[in-house]
Amino acid sequence: IVEAYGDGARRAKEAGYDIVEAIPAVGYIVAQFLSPKTNKRTDEYGGSLENRMRLLLEIVADMKKKSDGMAVSVRISGDDLYPPGEKKGYSLEDSKQMAKLLEAGGVDEIDVMAGWHSAPVAMIQSMVPQGKWLYLAEGIKSAVSIPVAGGTQVQDIEVAAEAVASGKCDMVYMARANIADPELANKAKAGKLHEIKPCINCCRCQESADDPPVYCSVNPRVGREAEYPSAMPEPAEVKKKVLVIGGGPSGMEAARVAALKGHNVTIVDENYQLGGAMLLASIANPKMGPQMRYKIKEVEALPINIKLSTEVTPEFVKQFNPDTVVLAVGGAPKLPDVPGIDKTIVRSRTDMQALFGAKASNKKKDFLMTLALPFVSQFVKYFYNPDLFRKLLKFDFVFIKNRPALLGGGFAGLEMGELLLECGKKPTIIEETPYFGSDFGPITRWVFKKILRDHNVPMYSSATIKEITDEGIKIDIGGETQFIDADAVIPTNITKNTVLYDQIKDMVKEIHATGDGNDPGKLMEAITSGFIAGNKI
Question: Parallel, antiparallel, or unpaired for β 428-430 and 404-407?
C-alpha cells in the first residue's frame, strides 16, 4: 500500500500536477488503521495513536520521496460521527492530534471531511444545512499552522467565502457545485455570482458514479460532453418558429437551447408564472427555489416570447402555426380506480397547481375549498414564496389538513411526508409495492426513511387501496382489511399526459414530447429531455 501511494505521487509529478492528495478518511482502508474502532492490531501498526498513524505517515514519506518533494495534502475525517460508546472510533479532539502528527510528518495541507460513510448521520443530503461541518475544519486549523480546507456540505460560493473570511479555514473544497456549474470559480472571480447555476444537492451525480458516465440534475451536458462539446449549441442552419407548451423545467430548458440556436421561440404556460412542477417542489425542497429562479432568469434573458395564463388547445396550435412544437405539459395525477376517488377529501396535484393559475379539476369541491381557492390563488400570484408556504402548512390548511394520507411511497411521497411531519402534521404513507423509495437512490432514500420511522409515521407497504371515504381510506394488506383515518388524501404519483399530444401530433411537422408528460421522472430527467429536444430542433 505504501509503495502504491508513492508510485501514484511520482506519476502525478511526471504528469505535471502541483499537488497530490491521500485520502485516509470516511472509512477507507487507511482510515481503518487510524481508528481504534477498527484497528485491533497488536503490532507496531496498532494500539497507540502514534502506532495507528504509522501506515499513513509511511505513505506520506514515500509520496514525498518519489515525487521529489511535491506538495502533499491529506484528507481526514474530522470526526467519524458515530454515536458515543462502543461504535465511536475518534472525535474532533483525536483528529487534532492526528493533524499535529501529519504536520510534523511533512504534510503541506489538510482537507477536513465529515464522518465515515457508514455512520448513521445525514452529512451531504439536501436537508443538511450548508456549512454544517465547517466547525471540524475550524477545530483542525486551531491545532496546526499549515493550510486547512473545509467543506463536505458547501455548494454556495458565498458560504465558502464567508468561511475563509471568518477564519474557519483557509480554503473550501466543492465538488457537486462544480459539476452543476464548471465555471463556478471563474464566475465568482469575475463577480458574476448571479450567473452561477445553483446545485440542488440531490446527490445523483454521486449515485451515477458507480455506473459511469456521471450525470447531473441541473447540468445536462455532464456525461454528454462528447456529443455536446460546447456549452453554446451550434447555430441552426434553418431558423424555425418553435412553440414550447409548458413552462416547467423541461419546457424552459428546451426554449433556452432552441433560442440559443437562433430559432424564433415562444413558450406558453397556463400558470401565471414560469416554473411548472418546480413551483410545488420548491415548497418541499428549499434547494429547488434558487434553481427555479435561475431557470426563469435564463429564459427571460433570451429573445423568447413568454405567454402566461394561457391554455393551449388544438385551435391555439392551429392558429399559431408553428414549424416545431415542444410538448412539455407535465404529468397527470396517477389516481387509483377505486370507489370514492372523486370525493372532496382527495387533493390531487391538479388541485394544488390551481393555486398557480392552472386549470382547476372538474370534480366537485367542498364548499370551503371552492370559497377559498380564488382568494388563495390571488394571494399566491402576488406573494408566492416557498418559505411562506412551508409556514402556512403548519396550520389547518384548506388543501392539506392535519392527518393527510399520502398515496405512494416513492420519492415524492417520502419527501412530502417529511415536509408535512416538519410542519406538525400527522401523515400516513401508503405504498402498493413492497418497497419505499424504489424510484430514487440510496444516498437520500435512507435519510427520508429514517426520519419518518424515527417519528413513528405509519408506513404501509404492499397495500391495495380498496375505497376512499369521507373519513379516510380502506386498504388491504395480505388479505386483511385496515382502515386509515385521514382528513385529506393526497396522491403523489404521476403518469404520462398524452391528451394534447394525441390531439396535435398530426397538425405539425415536428413535435418533441418531453418531461413528465412523456416519461415521468425527477428534475434531472425533465431538464435533460428538454436539453436534448432543444438541440434536435
Answer: parallel
